[in-house]
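In response to reviewer comment 3 from the previous cycle, which asked for concrete evidence that the modeling workflow produces usable outputs, we include below a single protein chain processed end to end. The sequence was submitted unchanged, and the resulting structure tokens are shown without manual editing.
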Amino acid sequence: MTLRKFRYFFLTILVLLLTGFSGPREEARFKLADMKVSYSPDTFVEMARAGKLEIVSLFLETGMNADVRNKKGETALLNAARYGRLQIVELLIQKGAELETKDARFGATALIWACTNGYKPIVELLLKQGADLNAKEPRLGAGALQVAATAGKSEIVSLLLEKGVDINAQDRNGFTALIWAAHNGHAETVQVLVNKGADIGVKGKKEGLNALLAAADRGQTDVVRVLVEKGADINARDIGGKTPLMRAIRGAWPETSKLLLMRGADPDLKDKEGNTALTIAREYGQREIEKMLTKAPDMPRQDQEITESDKN
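The workflow returned the following structure tokens.
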């Protein structure tokens, strides 16, 4: 018998003698000690994050509260959902972990974390167990659908919509899932949302951006194409009167600007300060776009190519 095995055998016998053979809790505790795992809430939560199923199971066998928090205010379930540890999520739920608990830093639930990082099996499990579909984190007021759309997780977006989530829910800035998906250039997710009935015209509170304005501002040409083909107002205005074309020009996005012009954007419109697309191009030194604008009247337009079938 090796020294290590002898030490474990001796300690086990000693504990059984001292506790009157009290049972599996103590046995689990000493297994953790033998594995050199410190017994603390911090370690328990960290093992859930790291995907150490056996160790998490042993902690629970000792009687560790499934909802205990570490020093950062995180629970095992939050970390397991955040990092895609499906088996640990299953185990914690079996042990009664609270589904709606929120982390101390972001105020996000397990469902929100799973949606953010695209762990569909965990999302499905949490929803099956009754997780709140419309819960929001308190900082931005974003829910599961918005974070999934922001990250371009189209499958999860579809799943949430099938479960009845509010497709046009707005965060504190007035942004919907569609605006966030457009802003970040997730054309596939935008397509899913629009096909499921998302309101293309909803605007945020601060700058008055709708999905098309947000996409143009970031030079998300593929998203702009999808939105225009789905009937978005190509000359929509933000709070300052700027159009998608103006915002694309200001951001130095020639491809996006060209697409908007070819789809029928009006280059002669003025914002509230009297600026046109051309004056903005000159102000920001966008010579390529300036040349494009001077040729705009002769530029072949594609807006007539958008058929009714494209909008459906």
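The chain has two domains: 22-132, 144-294. We consider this sufficient to address the reviewer's concern, and the full set will be provided in the supplementary archive.
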